[in-house]
Amino acid sequence: MAIRMRDVEYSHGGTVFEARMYWDDARGAAPAVAVAHAWGGRAEHECEAAEKLAGEGYVGFALDVYGRGVRGQSAEENMALMQPLLEDRARLQARLNAALDCAASQAEVDGSKMAAIGYCFGGLCVLDMARAGSPVKGVVSLHGLFNTPGNTDGNKISAKVLALHGWADPMVPPDTVIDLATEMTEAGADWQIHAYGHALHGFTHDAPALAEGIGYSESADRRSWQSILNFMAELFA
Questions:
Q1: Residue closest to 161 by CA, chosen among 183, 129, 139
Q2: Where are the domains of the chain?
Q3: CA angle (161, 88, 32) in 5-degree steps
Q4: b or e along 58-67 (b: 16 or more beta carbons within 10 Å of the residue's beta carbon)?
Q5: Exposed (0-12), middle (13-18) or buried (19+): which is 117, by Cβ within 10 Å?
Q6: The domain 3-235: what is its CATH number?
Q7: Which end of the chain has fewer CB within 10 Å, C or N?
Q8: Which spans in the chain are helix H?
Q9: pLDDT per residue over 82-132, tens digit each?
Q10: Is the Cβ–Cβ distance between 205 and 216 less than 8 Å?
């Protein structure tokens, strides 16, 4: 087994984006798992997850919704990048679909077998994929934001949904978790929510926090990764 990597450019609405793709060159076309980034833009954290997924036999596709080379360097810069897409979820969803289309078109990918995981803002992104009927069989939100987009009300959700949530996350309090469960139930989704006691927002990020309420949890990180692998094995069985 040899894990290979390349950067892949794609465009939408006049903006050029750059994903980073990992795959095992000993395999034929394989299911792809898109990895949606946190509020700072595509970073090493998402690329490492994509590479780990390649080691499990998938094509890991660390996508980009801000634009090639666009990264935030502070909480203020990150918020300035994220907020316009939170305010225009149709635009965000279109960018996500452009990334999925690009992933599906790669020679190493079985385009009929697509899934997505996402961290923080990326967790919201993958939930929006499910809400908007994007071509994914399932999505996993890790310490994601749950607020609804407003343009998918009444849609049925065919993708399987797994939310991996830190119960002590101050940005996503318990009533919001109940709201997500209600939303998913009303949409007819096959859904799961796993909550990790004492875990904060960003529990998979072993790095200095840029804001209060964010913190790493080794146990939640380890358990959530195993849950992702279990979910993908079921999804693509």
A1: 139
A2: 3-235
A3: 40
A4: bbbbbbbbbb
A5: buried
A6: 3.40.50.1820
A7: C
A8: 44-55, 75-87, 89-104, 121-132, 174-186, 218-235
A9: 999 999 999 999 999 999 999 999 999 999 999 999 999 999 999 999 999
A10: yes
- Give me the percent of the chain exceeding a pLDDT of 70: 100
Q: Where are the beta strands (DSSP E) in 85-170?
A: 109-119, 138-142, 160-166
* Distance (Å, whole) CA 162 – CA 138: 8
Looking at residue 163, its pLDDT comes to 98
CA–centroid distance for 108 within its chain: 20
The residue behind tokens 């072993």 is 206
Distance CA 181, CA 157 (A): 13
Angle ∠(217,22,114) on CA atoms, nearest 5? 85
Question: Is residue 161 a contact partner of residue 184, using CB atoms and an 8 Å limit?
Answer: yes
Task: Please answer whether residues 162 and 191 qualify as being in contact, where contact means their C-beta atoms are separated by less than 8 angstroms.
Answer: yes
Quote the pTM value.
0.97
**What tens digit of pLDDT does each residue of 32-76 get?**
999 999 999 999 999 999 999 999 999 999 999 999 999 999 999
Structure tokens at 89: 């979820």
d(CA 33, CA 24): 13
Look at the chain and count its residues.
237
The encoded tokens of residue 211 equal 């804001």
Token pair listed for 212 = 């209060």
86 within 8 A of 65, measured Cβ to Cβ? no
